[in-house]
Protein: UDP-N-acetylmuramoyl-tripeptide--D-alanyl-D-alanine ligase
Amino acid sequence: MNYFNFTINFLTILALSWYVILNLQWYNYKLKRVILNHHKRSWHILYFVLPLVLWINLEEKYFSIALIVYVFALFLWNKKLDKTLVYTKRVNRFFIIITFLLIFTYFTDNKYYSFASLIITLIVSNITEKLLFFKYKKDARKKLDSIKDLKIVAITASFGKTSIKNFLYHILKNSFNTYKTPRSVNTIAGLVLDVNKDLPKNTDIYIAEAGARVKGDIKTIANFLDPQYVIIGSVGEQHIEYFKSLENIKNTKKELLLSKRVKKAFVHKSTDLEDRNFIEVFPKELKILKSDLDGLHFSFLINKKEEDFFAPILGSFNAINLSAVILLALEFGLSLEEIRKTLKTLPQVEHRLQKIEAGGKLIIDDSFNGNYEGMMEAFNISKNHKGRRVVITPGLVESNDESNIKIAKKIDEVFDFVIITGELNLEILEKNINKDKVFVLKDKSKMQDILASSTKSGDLILFANDAPNFI
Structure:
């Protein structure tokens, strides 16, 4: 192969490989999800299929012009993304393999060997990562076993698991050496990395989340962590597109109970489980005494006695999350008075009904709350604001049309100005919201300018479920 043709083929496959690995990173390196569950499949046609077809059908000297356009288009597209490629060790290994294989195509006369290099790279990379992960997982389990008297708490739910984790950490941290997984890390790969890299060896209590996209994901985490304490929070139709039915979601969440060491499990009534052996259903007779922009007052039964609590956080649904936290804190030996005192200092969870005051405007950052109940609660809280109300939202992601229609109608009832981000639910939202108060934001990089020109002092601005722009 001459040098010109080799260079064109090399750069083309490298550009296609970059697009592939970026999408794999978005979807947790699951090729099936990239192909079948991608929220913007038109991108596959524009940035993969079309350039590939042109490369196959055009001679290199003609395709070279198309390649320049393609690379420039990728550059502009990447600049608009809010989740760009992170060059992890895994990604770097991927590019080393593809580069190595592409160099060898110089000695062939068939350009299709270049594309075969991408396919081979995907296979080799997958095998390599599985072998490395097996070792990392073994090392992580060994580290967990080496920490004397370590208590492990595993938390799962359709929504609220990160909040439960953060609340529990705050309650326990002054009484025990407590460590929690960072951010929303909840996959087996993320947990293995966290244990190996960051879990302190003097930890008394390790609090971890367990997430799932398919049946068996949580079972894998349960087998790895082998937690003594389990919380299964509210279960609903989040990620219904992956599980197909609510029953499948419930069964997957209940996989956390397969831990061989479980001593106590607090499970929400939405799991359809009953009190037995180590399982305790919560909450018992929960009452929301008051929920507004100042905080949350609630009560529920503990040992058949009504106990009341206050926390300076927003959202009545958080009473469910906090009731599980309180019950587990009692299990660890804390008193009700200790718990009440600590609850009063509970910090807001970032991006989950987080109240911020800036420039005379009241901002409610609920950008990480992507479930129906949570979004409706955010709307109800916003309704109490006496001034103008603004919402920025893409609607519900990984949910059904019926829920998005209800969301849209509630938005129309509560808000004076609506900024719709993303195209996923655009049609449903526009059909059910008064068009005079709707603004469609196609480029999220311009959001700050739009808010500056469209809002004023005294306004409430709600960020509801800020999906990344590949959604």
Remarks:
- DSSP finds 17 helices and 15 strands in the chain.
- The chain has three domains: 3-130, 148-343, 354-464.
